[in-house]
Amino acid sequence: MVHQHEHEQAQQQNKLKLYSYWRSSCSCRIRMALNLKSLEYQYIPVNLLKGEQFSPEFQKLNPIGYVPVLVDGDVVISDSFAIFMYLEEKYPQIPLFPSDIAKKALNIQAANIVCSSIQPLQNATVLKYIEAKVGPDERIPWAKFHIEKGFEALEKLLKDRAGRYATGDEVSMADVFLAPQLHYGTKRFNVDMAKFPLLTRLNGAYSELSEFRKAMPENQPDAPLA
Amino acid sequence: MAAKDDPKLVLYSYWQSSCSWRVRLALNLKGISYEYKAVNLLKGEQFTPEFEKLNPLHFVPVLVDGDVVISDSYAILMYLEEKYPQRPLLPSNPQHKALNLQVASIVSSSIQPLHMLSTLKYLEEKVGPQEQLLFAETNVEKGFHALEKLLKDIVGKYATGDEVHMADVFMAPQIAMATKRFKIDMSKFPSLSRIYESLKALPEFLESSPEEQPDAVM
User: What is a single cellular component term in the Gene Ontology annotation (chain A) (predicted)?
Assistant: First the structure.
């Protein structure tokens, strides 16, 4: 008979592992997805400020040094989009895609507006560059410009398609990618949310979901104490 | 199966758009014929009422498949993979499939947005023409270093082995653009160079190139 401790160890080893940084919005997406799918996981913090992404152990998992990274037994996956698609395929029990293929495409398009048109143009690296080349006063206007441009696109894209959530009445991929972006950028960069009534409503809906709340940066084990 | 001269797919594209190029390449690889509809971005045709109805975000490419209208190259490619599974662009092995999606993300999120015209135009107002070019080149190189690291142990004839997959579809236009527009020194990226040489030899790649499109201006 297996001892309780060994049994727990085995359970731990079989658990998904997520390498994450509390503040990374890309990591937040996956934390949300895992919570929505009721998948337990071991949270392994990677302190980006301290350069832990350059440690030999982490480099072996992801030579590019980005979070999030998901480890599922032998499989190691980096990049929030790739991880999301993997989870959808491997753990289909609580689907985060609508079954209608056109609606699925809409979700990917919305997610991609966040991934490609917003996040990379206002992440820490770009803002550091803008601060260095233009000046510290340009940081916020630069970020605000790109976030608002992306939000305008999302507002237009989703206004006739949204239900209780972004693309209908069920939480789906678009929500998972949108929520961290809404949470992260809006206050910090003086984004004028009055221009985005749909996104404002969605943000309200997200704040009522425990799966989303639990995934938020301030609720992570590696978040600094308030 | 539809006759070759009666395609039911319509692709709205601009010859120089690398995002449109990805979709043209994928359609060719899958052997899917389509009607090409040019949208002249320089002349502002993306702002016409007709195009606005298809894509209120005014971007190309847009795919129309009967009643279904899809924008965004990543969304279009995933749609094509599901609706037209012949000649799959994603391997079935989960690890390799994920790697292909990761490469696609690196190109579409970490490289292309940082050198696309709208970004550079806005940046140029702030930092001037020399600096914006340097910004573009630096970010392309940074992305290429990342891809080189990621692929060096798995690269075969193509990015993730000996068959053309999604990673190649995203990388081919990106590398072409890097060499032509930004004069990136590809000798620093031996795996990427090798992949690019293999892709350049494919008729599907050549036929999808900007210069071969109906709206190309030479």
Answer: cytoplasm
Q: Which residue has the tokens 């639990």?
A: A214
pLDDT class of B3 with cuts at 50, 70, 90: very low
A72 to chain B: closest CA residue: B95
* Nearest CA distance, B192 vs chain A (angstrom): 16
Answer yes or no: is pLDDT of B150 > 80. Answer: yes
Q: Which residues pair with B68 in a beta bridge?
A: B65
Taking any CB pair shorter than 8 Å as contact, residues of chain A touching chain B are 63-64, 74-83, 85-86, 89-90, 101-102, 104-106, 108-109, 112-113, 115-117, 119-121, 126, 129-130, 133-134, 138, 142, 145, 153, 156-157
CA distance B80 to B84: 5
Residue B105 with chain A: CB contacts under 8 Å: 79-82, 115
Tokens of A127: 């803002």
Say which amino acid occupies A184. Y
- Residue A185 pLDDT > 80, yes or no? no
CB contact under 8 A, B126 and A102: no
Instruction: State which residue of chain A sits closest to B93, comparing Cα positions.
Output: A75
Q: Can you tell me the ipTM of this complex?
A: 0.92
Ranges of each domain in chain A: 1-94, 101-214
